[in-house]
Specification:
Elements lengths: L3 H5 L15 E4 L5 H15 L7 H9 L6 E8 L5 E9 L7 E9 L8 H21 L7 E8 L3 H9 L3 E12 L14 E4 L5 H11 L9 H11 L6 E4 L5 E8 L2 H7 L3 E9 L8 H15 L4 E7 L6 H7 L3 E12 L1
Parallel strand pairs: 4-5, 10-11
Antiparallel strand pairs: 1-2, 2-3, 3-4, 5-12, 6-11, 6-12, 7-8, 8-9, 9-10
Length: 339
């Protein structure tokens, strides 16, 4: 494989969107954070977005290249000083076997239909190419992808991605199961036992995760996903299952998505990760894990529990979750340009 520089052909410079589009652009600075956060919430509400950007993600934009990832963000100002749009590029730093650049943009509804979306995606594409080469080196032979996650109901944004050369790489269905408070955890079976997260062997659970997510979309990200899920984990609703010899063979990490609570006014639990060792599949372990997590969330007064699933998963996960009482709500598409 040829080097990244040859494949990505990063531009020497990438211009900001033109002034003729109505906004004045500059790089984000820390004092922009309150206005950026307000704009993002306004756009998410207007778009009825599936997921909401966390305060931590906004802080990552402020930290820029000094943070956990390599992030570059530009802000578009109206003549009165209000923020009309913001766009960012994030290069994942702690994954070395593949280069991944994630792009996001938020444009206030009153500034749509003027060509800003196209101009921002052009800037993001060029800047992503520059940052990938900057971080990994022009001679690096690792594969690289520029990715944009778009809710399926946002058809204009999806058309924009396709017109810019992105293709639909994966679709994730967001599923929910309503809770009424009567849910009970299933009985242990065949010598398996459910263990609360706070009493679990976390290193053993991680080993199960690393094994089971080797079959997943973007397996290179499994270490990153584990770190994020553990950081957001709600121990009350998270469990592991051990076999008759006490070995950890499955886990479920469930979070309390507070940002979603604030946006929707509805309490919920959300399963961020679940995995089972290959040798222990088909023995009821998944049902035990979900049964325990569902019962725990219900006893805490949650109104529903959710998850997202790759619709093309080789494990038929979508059908399995349907059997566990989860129903499709919406979906999101990962658009990508691969090199």
């Amino acid at each position: 494989m040829t080097g990244l520089a040859e494949r990505l052909q990063p531009p020497v410079s990438v211009p900001f969107p033109g002034a003729h589009l109505g906004l004045r652009w500059r790089p984000l600075i820390a004092s922009d954070a309150p206005k950026i956060a307000a704009l993002i919430r306004q756009v998410e509400d207007a778009d009825d977005a599936i997921s909401r950007m966390s305060v931590g993600e906004i802080a990552d934009m402020v930290e820029g290249e000094n943070g956990y990832d390599l992030v570059d963000t530009i802000v578009g100002f109206e003549s009165d000083g209000n923020v009309g749009a913001v766009a960012s590029v994030r290069v994942i730093r702690n994954v070395d076997s593949v280069g991944i650049a994630l792009v996001k943009a938020f444009v206030h509804p009153r500034w749509r239909g003027r060509g800003l979306g196209r101009a921002l995606l052009y800037w993001q594409d060029g800047r992503a190419r520059q940052l990938l080469v900057q971080h990994f080196g022009g001679n690096s032979e690792i594969p690289a992808s520029i990715m944009n996650k778009v809710d399926s109901h946002m058809t204009d944004r999806r058309r924009l991605c396709i017109a810019a050369g992105f293709y639909a790489k994966r679709t994730f269905s967001v599923m929910y199961r309503n809770l009424d408070g009567s849910e009970q955890a299933p009985q242990n079976k065949e010598g398996y036992a459910v263990v609360p997260w706070q009493d679990a062997d976390h290193a053993a659970a991680k080993a199960v995760h690393m094994e089971s997510f080797g079959e997943h979309f973007l397996p290179e990200m499994r270490q990153r996903w584990w770190e994020e899920a553990v950081n957001e984990c709600e121990p009350r609703w998270s469990r592991v299952v051990v076999d008759p010899q006490g070995k950890t063979v499955g886990y479920i990490l469930t979070e309390r998505p507070a940002t979603s609570w604030v946006a929707t006014g509805q309490t919920e639990a959300y399963v961020s990760l679940v995995g089972i060792s290959r040798d222990h599949r088909g023995r009821g372990v998944l049902r035990m894990l979900f049964g325990a997590a569902i019962a725990a969330a219900a006893s805490s007064g949650m109104h529903r529990i959710g998850l997202d699933v790759d619709t093309t998963s080789s494990t038929n996960a979508h059908e399995i979750y349907e059997h566990l009482g989860f129903i499709d709500w919406r979906s999101a598409v990962y658009y990508s340009i691969d090199h």
